[in-house]
Write a structure and sequence with these properties.
The structure holds two protein chains of two kinds. By secondary structure, chain A is mainly α. Chain A contains eleven helices and four strands. Helices cover 72% and strands 4% of the residues of chain A. Chain B has one domain. Chain B contains 14 helices and four strands. Chain B is globular. Classes of the chains: A mainly alpha, B mainly alpha.
């Protein structure tokens, strides 16, 4: 019974940040039709920026609670600086090209960003420990959990609801939905499609950076964090269905639980449990769990 | 398992004979040049030729319009097969090992081929990626296979003879470029055969291929299996020269590099694959020596440049005639 509970809690906390990151990935795919390999690099940028910002806040002797603001700020700055640069400066030249080719464009972007992060932050690991203790510990039965993990779950829920609300209940969001449905028709109705692209891409990057910034306290921020995150978040969006918010949530939960189940019952399977789930979903529902099958255009 | 329908010498049109003699000419030239080259250079070309084989398989699939993002799987399977045969069963022959590597890669790929042949675009890419990452996860955790550190293997023999210390690099170089030449010629013959042309037609319009009586899925499945053979072959050849194997062979970034080479080469020319592979090896070894922290940056910029300005790869530079 206890193990079941542990597995559930570990799975859900792992799913929380993963959902935030995957939500960005699925949004960018939904609008721009780009499966973004560089998404993990934006996650890493967020983590690095958070490390710098939190360190800076600490050196100013601000209250530890301010480090949360610093992390949020880090994500905003990454999105505000990097998104326009990559979307306007690079991606727009490749719109309309084959989906797989676009994957390779983002692969090139990933390679470039890998080295850019190394150039800016060096190769030594950073530790952002301050915020981790902010929420204290939580005793449940015999187990103790770090409060921060639960705060992350709350953050994920809030972010998910905000994005859902933004897309479905605001004018701007409905325009985005129109563009997702058909960029061409939307453009002919007077929608500024390239503005929507940039908006969606910025939000997507912001979510990646947010995920990175808020997981920074739980990991050591070092070269290579991007590499793992990309593939796991790919698994999430593939399982859930590309371009679907509910899909990202369910996908993140499935991946989180699959992983924690493997960790606690069969550690050997930790690394590939996620990909097995992904492969099985792809086999039976190639379009993902939450995606209606589309007729192939001739 | 190489079901190439037409050998290059069979219906020997002058063009085919020309290609075959050009291939053999290049091989002879490289063999002589390698004899007088410094060790690092022969090693570099060995790696380029072996890795190029993996990318050759990807190009074969790309001709049908799909890009596998998990070719590291076949590469790793070939490598591990060769290394295990060497260490556990004592099979040390430098010609038998690559063939065995390719064969085992085929055996493992065959069950997946009918499944994968249903997928296109990013779904094909992602499913192959998932398979390679499962392989990676398995290899990392299996103590029998050395876990995350992998393991070493000794020096191969050739036709029952031990390789002399001074010449081992050169002989493995000869074996590698020899295998690469044969595979390149076979690939050319395959690409120009009926089935190879059906693959090209699939790229243009699948439905028409079906209406005309061709089987799209069969073509895709066969290409996938052939790609696995190429991948296994390449993996085994790399392992023999490297003397070491580790799970990273199956990691997605390794697969990414193979795709990089395939995109750089384009799908028209077979020779371009090996040229592109050599370019990557040269860039890799020079930049990791001189700018260790910016070589991926250079690679990324290069890839962007190719996609933007040479969308059909460097092969399109000298294959303009057949471009449509």
């Amino acid at each position: 019974m206890n193990t079941v509970f542990t597995i559930l809690v570990d799975g859900v906390t792992y799913a929380s940040w993963l959902f935030i990151v995957a939500l960005g990935l699925t949004l960018v795919f939904g609008v721009l039709k780009i499966l973004n390999i560089a998404h993990g690099s934006f996650y890493a940028l967020g983590a690095y920026a958070a490390a710098s910002f939190v360190g800076w806040a600490a050196s100013m002797h601000w209250a530890p609670a301010f480090s949360l603001v610093a992390m949020l700020l880090a994500a905003v700055v990454v999105a505000a600086v990097v998104a326009p640069l990559t979307e306007r400066g690079l991606l727009r030249f490749f719109y309309g090209r084959d989906e797989v080719l676009l994957v390779l464009v983002t692969y090139a972007m990933f390679l470039i960003l890998e080295d850019v992060t190394k150039l800016v932050w060096g190769t030594n690991p950073y530790y952002v420990s301050e915020p981790y203790g902010l929420f204290g510990n939580l005793n449940v039965g015999v187990q103790t959990w770090v409060g921060y993990d639960f705060a992350l779950v709350a953050l994920a829920v809030i972010v998910g609801l905000l994005v859902w609300w933004g897309l479905n209940r605001t004018r701007q969001g409905k325009i985005v939905l129109a563009v997702i449905h058909s960029a061409e028709v939307a453009a002919s109705m007077g929608v500024n499609v390239s503005r929507v692209y940039m908006l969606a891409f910025s939000v997507g990057i912001f979510l990646a950076a947010l995920g990175g910034a808020f997981t920074a306290p739980m990991i050591s921020v070092q070269p290579g964090v991007s590499v793992g995150v990309i593939i796991v978040s790919f698994a999430v969006v593939i399982i859930g269905g590309l371009g679907s918010i509910e899909g990202a949530a369910v996908g993140a939960l499935i991946v989180g639980l699959a992983r924690s189940l493997a960790v606690h019952t069969a550690p050997v399977a930790e690394l590939f449990s996620i990909y097995i789930v992904m492969a099985v979903v792809l086999v039976f529902r190639p379009e993902g769990l939450f995606q209606r099958t589309q007729a192939r255009k001739i | 398992m190489d079901s190439s329908p037409a050998k290059p010498t069979d219906s020997a049109t002058p063009a085919r004979r020309r290609i075959a003699s050009a291939g053999l000419g290049v091989f002879a030239l490289l063999a002589v040049a390698g004899f007088f080259s410094p060790k690092w250079l022969t090693f570099l070309v060995t790696m380029a030729a072996a890795n190029g084989l993996v990318s050759l398989g990807i190009v074969g699939l790309m001709r049908g319009g799909v890009v596998p993002f998990g070719q590291g799987m076949s590469f790793a399977i070939g490598g591990y097969t060769a290394a295990l045969l060497f260490n556990k069963l004592g099979l040390t022959d430098a010609l038998a090992l690559p063939f065995a590597g390719g064969l085992v890669a085929v055996v493992i790929a065959v069950p997946f081929a009918p499944l994968l042949s249903r997928y296109r675009g990013i779904f094909f890419a992602m499913l192959t990626l998932a398979l390679s990452m499962v392989t990676y996860g398995l290899l990392m955790k299996l103590e029998l296979l050395g876990g995350s550190d992998g393991f070493n293997l000794g020096r191969p023999t050739l036709l029952g003879r031990k390789l002399p210390d001074a010449r081992v690099g050169y002989i493995l170089y000869l074996v590698t470029i020899g295998v690469a030449t044969v595979m390149a010629l076979l690939a050319r013959a395959y690409f120009d055969s009926t089935r190879g042309l059906v693959t090209l037609a699939v790229r243009e319009n699948e439905l028409r291929v079906e209406y005309l009586g061709g089987s799209v899925r069969q073509a895709m499945a066969i290409n996938f299996v052939l790609a696995a053979f190429c991948g296994g072959l390449g993996g085994a050849l790399v392992v023999m020269s490297l003397g070491h194997i580790e799970p990273n062979f199956s990691f997605w970034t390794t697969s990414g590099e193979f795709v990089f080479v395939a995109i750089l080469a384009g799908w028209q020319s077979v020779a371009a694959v090996f040229v592109a592979s050599t370019v990557l090896e040269v860039v890799r070894s020079f930049s990791s020596a001189y700018f260790p922290n910016t070589w991926q940056l250079a690679l990324g910029l290069f890839l962007l440049f190719v996609i933007r300005f040479l969308p059909r790869g460097i092969g399109s530079l000298w294959m303009k005639g057949s471009a449509r």
